[in-house]
Amino acid sequence: YYLIPDGQNLDDLIGEKKFQKIRKIFQKAVGFELENFKNLKPILISNLLSELVLRKDMPYALDEYLWHFAKENQRKLTGIETLEEQLTVLQKLDLNYQTQAILAIARNFSKFRKSLQKMTDYYLEGDIQKLYKASKKGSGKVRKILLYNRNKIMAERIDERARSETLFSAIGAAHLGGEKGVLRLLKLKGWKLKPIKFG
Asked: What is the pTM of this model?
């Protein structure tokens, strides 16, 4: 599921010369050795690059931190999406689209870095609408696969579980806002929602 199909590598998809060029860009920018991950689907490489850019401010992803916190406090843990559902999303993403996206990151890595920082700022400000708009724009023609379809699943699961037990649910912030976002879908199911402001 995670590998480029038919035993191919990224250098097969973009050519050896271009591969070596972007390899040097990623190495210089964040110390990422593309050679070690060239058999992974490009979207997973993009995710790894994002984590490396953000790691200087946040050593652990927030969802990872919350998962360990809940585990240490003997809370019942479950996923909003199943692994199978996430792998299905991965299978549906066009390989050419993924490849073009990784090349776009390499063409302007500073823009990629600024974009991630802007998303982080929106998150910290609690501005989910700006976060949603930026994510929607960034996901382009695959937003239905990456956002909308998954939003429906998340809203269904949260609604179902919250009706039978107290629930703390952590989902990607890009899934919250917008007309097809999880918050609106939950409101349509009759839930009253309000933000909690942190100092």
From this structure: 0.83
